[in-house]
Amino acid sequence: MRLFWKVYLSSLCLLVLSIALLTSVISLREARRSADLLRDKQKLHATIAASQVEAGYHEQIWPFEMLSTMSQDENFLFWRIVDGDGHVVLANSPLQDTPDTDAILARTRVVRSEPLLVSDPVGDTNVWLVPMRMRTNTRPWTFWLGFHTRTIERQIRGIVLANVLPAAAIAVILIPISLLVTQQVLRRLVTLTAAAQKMKHGDLGVSLPPPGRDEIGQLVGAFDAMVQGIRDRDDQIREQMRALVEARDDLEMRVHERTAELTRTNTELKREIIEHKRAEEALRESEEKYRLIVENQIDVVVKADLEGHVLFASPSCCELFGTTEEELVGIEFIPLLSEEDREVVAKSMATACRPPYTSYAEMRTNTKDGWRWLGWATKGVLDENSNMVAIVCAGRDITERKQAEEELKRSLAELEQFNRLAVGRELRMIELKREINEMAQRAGLDPPYDVSFAETAEREHGHVSKPG
Amino acid sequence: MKKVIVALGIAICAAAVWHFATKSDVPLESEVHAPPTSGGRCQQMEDGCAGYGWSVHPDTATAVEQALSAALGSEGAKGDVTFLFYSHQHKPERIVEALRQARRSSGRVCGWSSWRGVITPDGYHASPDGVVGLMSLCSPGVTVGVGAAAFDETESPESSATLALGRAIDDAGDPEPGERPAMILMSTTYDGHEERILEALEAATEGEVPVVGGTATGGPPPYGSDWSIIAKDQVLRKGLVVCVFYSALPFGWSFRGGFDRTGKSGVVTKSDGRVIREIDGKPALDVYDKWSGGRIAEAMRAGKDMNTFTGLYPLCRTFTSAQTTHHLFVHAWPPEDGAVSRCLVTSANVSEGDVVYFSEGSWNILLNRIGALPQLAKGTTPRMPVRAGLFICCEAVLTNIPLEQRDHMAHLMNRSLGEVPWIGTFTWGEQGNFPGLGNHHGNLLTSVVLFPEPTAGGE
After folding, report:
1. Is A60 close to B405, i.e. CB distance below 8 A?
2. Cβ-based neighbours of B249, under 8 Å, separated by 6 or more
3. B257 in helix, strand or coil?
4. Are A223 and A195 in contact (CB under 8 A)?
5. N-to-C CA span, chain A
6. CA distances from residue A284 to A260, A277, A291 in whole angstroms, order as listed
7. Do B368 and A56 touch (CB under 8 A)?
8. d(Cα A208, Cα A227) in Å, to the nearest integer?
9. Rounded to whole angstroms, how far apart are CA atoms A226 and B27?
10. Which residue among B315, B344, B360 closes a domain?
11. What pTM, to 2 d.p., does this model score?
12. Of A69, A115, A193, A307, which one has the greatest count of Cβ atoms within 10 A?
């Protein structure tokens, strides 16, 4: 049986049971209401019959026809006309013994003028007692109308038979079946759930019920297939995990290495950065120094291209020439030099254009104070391809030194004159001392003169030239 | 497991259904009693007895035996006369044979076939298998004689009646010379001679003796002709039986119908024995239907049993004495060819010139008036004790009273008669006496005869 039909059967069972029970409740209420209506109807019958009996009494005409019609009622039991002494004057079954209910009724006395309903507490008999005008020994005659409630009870039984019993039968038959079915369904579902719980905790060694043809069976089959698939996948995953672990280890090793490399690189970079910062600092300091030097330089600095055009002129240079940097930049520098020193200039430039790209030349320069001697240290500026692109010339006013040199030259000449005279005598003395020392030594005596200074000088300055 | 549960459920349901079904069929205590198949009561007195008995046993001999045993009791009583009534299912010859074999019956048997059933103090008795009812009477103050005559014994019904009367008188013994019966009970087969028989009886008794009787009936529709009478050990299918009662004690009787005469009347202008052809010069059926307000034609169109239907609408002839006016009803109904002949058939002779009135009734009124009959009968003999009673009622009256109401006839009779045994029969014509006006034959009538109880001091 397919699951749909099982669920449908269970639902239908409950639905039928519910409807039957609901119908039963409603029907029982209706039956109870019908019982009330029945009592009212029988009361009406009894009252009318009593009035008919009263009307025909004096003519001895009993309302048989009316009473007969009344007796056709399906709930009718009996009617009686009872005199004040309790004797039956007339009855529907006049020749039969009175039923046992009379014992109950005999004890009942109608004291009011209203109809009185007497019910048999055990059976299903109800009797309306309607007092009439006729009297016996001051007690009124009564009209008795007995009716039963079997019809109502039959209805109730019919309701029970038609609704409750079938519902109970359905319940008795179908509920256990549906319970069995449900249990069957749930047992497999429980097994599946337990298996799923085990699988949740990683236990793939679950045992499943045999697959069936219904949805649950198909589910079991699918679950089994899924478990098998998971097992296969798990094996694959284990393999892949193993490979992954290996790959991870390898990767970790690589990462470790790379990290170390990066750490090193980082350290290098940090160091380079520090160095760069230091270089920047140094550069900045250098620039500062440069700026300080340049700005406070008493020497003049000129930068010029290879054609001699001024590219830069230091403030001292501008001061020297009595002009501004703007006026100096762009002009040819060479014409500012003495024509007499042009050859020196050319030679210095040529020297500066060769490694080590430095040269020094002293030349006369036309300054605001007139011609002055400046010593120019020229340095070639190279690009990244080691091509010289400019020259930087640092000039110092050496006019006083030049003048002092001239003076010195004259003094040197004078001194050389004198020196030659003094050296010769000294050298002779040294020679003499050595001859004495040699003579002492040969004599076995300690040299009496120290001439080591001369030997030191000879080692440092070579042969001490003998005076001339 | 499933099979066990299903089987258990089915068993529970079946048990519940059986329980409810059987419970619903449980009758009341009053319904438990199976109707008796025979009954009766014998009232034994020092000087006689009176008792009735009846049986619906299908076997005639058994039925007779049961009825006789009930009527006579177990003390070996034997009545002077036995009034015997039986339905058409029982052959009268077998009844006579059964009576002979019973040897408890008196030789004086007066009886006739009764319509379907009999009625006694314990109710109306009828059965598809037939019924036998009888009443045995033995009263020292009453001398009884039974005589019968077949119509073919003499040249006329009148002479047969006279013959039968003579035989009855002879059977009664030796009455005093010139002594007339106090009461005559008669019955005749349904041959249409009632009036002539009464006429003969009246002639023989000089009109001084009340005659009460009934016409023996045949079978049910289509109303077979298997009527019969029993007189002593004689069975007659064309004849009459007469039972004479001699007594110094007064008999009580009443004879009346339960219908109300209306003001609609006419003169029979053309009739032929028991066929009324014209009333007031018009077709009798048309007049009758007009009087009924069209109900007759309506019933004919509806195919109703017109014999029964018209039993509530008799024609009435009036007989007036110095004291009162009596209504003699005639049952009239359209014949099978009524649609053509437009006449009415009756069960009593209606002569041209008779004034007939349209009458109406209902079973309720009939029942009440039947119940009042014994009281009327007792009124004719006040303070006279009654030993037994005989009740004769028209079949059409009985038919119109619902079956379940017929016990009320007995009950009402009992209310008037107390413990007096009595028996009733149903006939196709009733004969009775209107005091001061003689004996008449009519239809749809009932009569009661009360047999006197001898007093302690002799008569």
Report:
1. no
2. B141, B142, B182, B384, B452, B453, B454, B459
3. strand
4. yes
5. 144
6. 34, 10, 10
7. yes
8. 10
9. 70
10. B360
11. 0.63
12. A115
Q: Say whether A68 and B28 touch across the interface (CB within 8 A).
A: no
- How many domains are there within chain B? 2
A192 CA: distance to closest CA in chain B (Å): 24
Look up residue A91 and give its two tokens: 């009855």
Residue A344 and residue A346: Cα distance in Å, rounded?
A: 5
Q: Best interface-test mutation with B: which of A65, A70, A152, A180 has the largest number of B CBs within 10 A?
A: A65
pLDDT in tens, B330-357: 999 999 888 889 999 999 999 999 999 9
- Please state the domain extents for chain A: 2-160, 209-296, 298-397, 406-461
Exposed e or buried b per residue across A74-93, where buried means at least 16 C-beta atoms within 10 angstroms of its C-beta = ebbbbbbbbbbeeeebbbbb
Give ipTM to 2 decimals: 0.78
In angstroms, the CA A68 to CA A72 distance is: 7
Pick the CATH number of A2-160 from 3.40.1260.20, 3.30.450.20, 3.40.190.10, 1.10.3720.10: 3.30.450.20
- Could you read off the pLDDT of A275-328 as tens digits, one per residue? 878 878 877 777 777 777 767 767 888 888 888 888 888 888 888 888 888 888
Which among B2, B3, B5 is the top mutation candidate for probing chain A, defined by the most A β-carbons within 10 Å of its own β-carbon? B5
The size of chain A, in residues, is 468
Same fold, A2-160 and A298-397: yes
Pairing outcome for strands B275-279 and B282-283: antiparallel
Of A62, A93, A169, the CB nearest to B13: A169
User: Which CATH architecture best describes the domain A298-397?
Assistant: 2-Layer Sandwich (3.30)
The residues on A that touch B, with CB distances below 8 Å, are 56, 60-66, 68, 71, 77-78, 89-91, 93-96, 99-100, 148, 154, 157, 160-161, 165-166, 168-169, 172-173, 176-177, 180
